[in-house]
Amino acid sequence: IIDPGYGFAKTIDQNYHLLKNQRLLNFHDVPTLSGISRKSMIYKTLDIKASLALNGTSALHMICLQQEASILRVHDVKEAMEVIQLYHILESN
């Protein structure tokens, strides 16, 4: 599994640059994990508490899926499954 390590030794800008280009990490049929749930790149950007970052997390989960993430590491399973369901509908049409 390739884990780009969102939030670890990176600035907020570096995290967003990585997310925007995460697709480039997909090689050799190795799954890519995105662990952005409630990360500081969300709550610091939105100037909110981490506990209030669900909406931002869901928005970025969709971006992770569009960037071909294989695995989402999440705190809010129900909401993440809703994002995944919507993504699959979008991709099948």
Structural account:
The structure is a single chain. With 93 residues, this protein is mainly alpha-helical. The protein has one domain (12-92). The protein has four helices and two strands. The protein has a two-stranded parallel sheet. Helix 1 (12-20) crosses helix 2 (40-46) and helix 3 runs parallel beside helix 4. The longest helix has 16 residues, at 77-92. The protein is globular, with a radius of gyration of 13 Å. 23% of the residues are buried. The mean pLDDT is 96.
How is this fold's topology laid out?
Elements: H1 12-20, E1 33-34, H2 40-46, H3 54-66, E2 71-72, H4 77-92
Parallel strand pairs: 1-2
Name the descriptors.
93 residues; mainly alpha; 4 helices
